[in-house]
What does this fold into?
Amino acid sequence: MNMVMTPHDSAKTESPKPRIRVLIVDDHEVMRLGIRNLLELRPGWSVCAEANNGQEAVEKTLQYRPDVIIMDITMPVMNGLEAASQITKKEPQIPVILFSLNLSDDLYRHFRTDGIRGAVAKGDAARDLVLAVETVLEGGTFFPDQKPRSS
It folds into this structure.
């Protein structure tokens, strides 16, 4: 039996989903490595670049055009909030997820106004980071519930 493969048939043998390219921004190398290891466990996900401050994040976003950015807030040269604001003005289609030790109530006012599409506390990364990336890539937002202030 002879089988003829059409160009359409050969496309089926390739990866069914496009790769998800992630830019990781954190001033601690060990943290970037941990995020990379967590994300690259997902089939089709890869880290296209890393940056260790907000200025590098802006430059590497324009250079690599990632699908999503995971960015620390507290960094030297330019903090994550400022970098996220600049990035979302230049590349509004690229979602930014803030990644911080503490997501204080004070930060919540920045989330919607600076084009930030998600936030994950570093302590919750194992549980929340992959879900946050999936959510923002589907056009949604991922923000942890605000905890009531203790008096």
Helices lie at 7-11, 29-39, 54-64, 80-90, 105-113, 125-137. Residues 5-15, 146-151 have pLDDT under 50 and may be disordered.
